[in-house]
From TrEMBL:
Its main location: membrane. InterPro entries: MFS, MFS_dom, MFS_trans_sf. It is found in: Cell membrane. The lineage of its organism: Bacteria, Bacillati, Bacillota, Negativicutes, Acetonemataceae. It comes from Acetonema longum DSM 6540. This is Major facilitator superfamily (MFS) profile domain-containing protein. One of its GO terms (cellular component) is plasma membrane. The chain crosses the membrane at residues 40-62, 69-86, 92-110, 131-154, 160-177, 213-234, 240-260, 272-290, 296-314, 326-351, 357-380. It comes from the Bacteria. It is a multi-pass membrane protein. GO terms for molecular function: transmembrane transporter activity.
């Protein structure tokens, strides 16, 4: 595993998803300034994900056909600059458009970034992808802290700070493209005697995996979008406390993502995915019924562990199910997964407007049960089963 490049890609992931973490923390300020409803605020999250959900698989598909490393720095730049513009716009639909530009940038980065992380990870794909995913979760954790502090200091114009990390990281990634190019080269062709039968894509298991990923995405994005608002309007805490709650969840998620990938390399991807989702059910059920700030804060720790432990194993498992379409698999499990959660956010917001934010979040427990059940339908990938069989024969 080329650690230098894995951490470089992870840093790119951090500076991209920094913007996804910042957007929900901006919502209380936008609601206060423009008197937005929950549904309208969630509509801005929808803006970041609607077009992204359409183009992300396309980026992944074309990454498999012809890798375009320049999409990574361009994606980072669009992600930061689009969101930075929001604080300077007073028209809702102009904000919607600016956030949509940010979403396109995020969509451009993920498939190519995950594909390259897979390439430079070598045999330790679980660890490599967990490091890459760790960067994304760190971005979600840092985003609320950074933008909340900036908005408290300078008001909505404080969104301008998001341009700085975007420009810096885009320049660093662009400077390393030549060094990454050798890893995207196809493997040398073998002669007829050496040639191994090509691994076939397993579409049926991948489809079931996608259901699990989408359920997790909706839970993840609903918490990401409404957690600060829950802290402010239900638990009656400050805006700063709402941003802090989001940061706690994603900080725990950073550690859990790394450990989940490391444990998956050792004990198997399927096992870690199943344990994570089964344990998530009771913690999520108790959390969504908590009406005490101290209890809710304490529950963020086990909630973060169980929600994020399966993150990188799901990505690697998707890549193993589609060995000839790693970019497409990454676009779905890492990119489209997040987008689907964002697209459903307005529905959760509409429900919260009509029936209360607490009840809206309680609906997530049902999704955690579906994800846990579906996790047990996922088979071991053929390539992994073949390797296990060969090791058994050698012994």
């Amino acid at each position: 595993m080329r650690n230098r490049f894995v951490w470089l890609l992870s840093a790119g992931h951090l500076f991209t998803d920094l913007n996804q973490g910042a957007l929900p923390a901006m919502l209380p300020f936008l609601i206060a300034e423009y008197n937005l409803s929950y549904a309208s605020a969630a509509g801005l999250v929808f803006a970041a994900n609607f077009l992204s959900s359409i183009v992300q698989p396309l980026f992944g598909y074309y990454a498999d056909k012809s890798s375009k490393l320049w999409l990574m720095p361009v994606g980072i730049l669009f992600a930061g600059c689009g969101l930075a513009a929001v604080g300077f716009l007073s028209n809702y639909w102009l904000m919607f458009a600016a956030i949509m530009v940010s979403g396109i940038g995020i969509a451009a980065f993920h498939p190519e970034g995950a594909r390259m992380a897979n390439k430079v990870s070598g045999a330790k794909q679980g660890t490599g992808i967990s490091i890459f995913s760790l960067g994304g979760n760190a971005g979600f954790a840092c985003g609320p802290v950074m933008i909340t502090a900036s908005l408290l200091l300078w008001g909505l114009k404080g969104t301008l700070i998001l341009i700085v990390p975007a420009v810096v990281m885009a320049a660093i990634i662009a400077s390393q493209i030549k060094n990454l190019q050798p890893y995207q080269a196809p493997a040398p062709k073998l002669d007829a005697q050496q040639a191994q039968p090509a691994e076939t894509d397993e579409w049926a298991p991948f489809s079931r995996l996608t259901v699990v990923v989408f359920c997790r995405s909706i839970m993840f994005h609903s918490l990401n979008t409404f957690l600060p608002l829950y802290w402010i309007h239900v638990l009656l805490q400050s805006k700063a406390a709402g941003g802090t709650a989001l940061t706690i969840l994603f900080t725990v998620g950073v550690v859990s993502t790394f450990l989940g990938g490391h444990l998956a390399d050792r004990f198997g991807y399927n096992k870690i995915i199943r344990i994570g989702f089964v344990a998530l059910v009771p913690f999520l059920a108790v959390f969504t019924m908590a009406n005490n700030a101290a209890l809710a804060t304490a529950l963020l720790i086990p909630l973060g562990v169980t929600l994020f432990a399966a993150n990188s194993p799901l990505t690697v498992l998707g890549q193993k199910y589609l060995p000839s379409r790693v970019g497409l698999a990454s676009g779905v499990t890492l990119g489209l997964a997040v987008s689907v959660g964002g697209v459903t956010a307005p529905l959760v917001g509409w429900f919260a407007d009509h029936y209360g934010l607490s009840l809206a979040l309680q609906l997530l427990t049902g999704l955690s049960v579906i994800a846990a059940v579906m996790a047990f339908t996922l088979p071991v990938p053929r390539s992994e089963a073949k390797d296990l069989k060969n090791r058994t024969i050698v012994r």
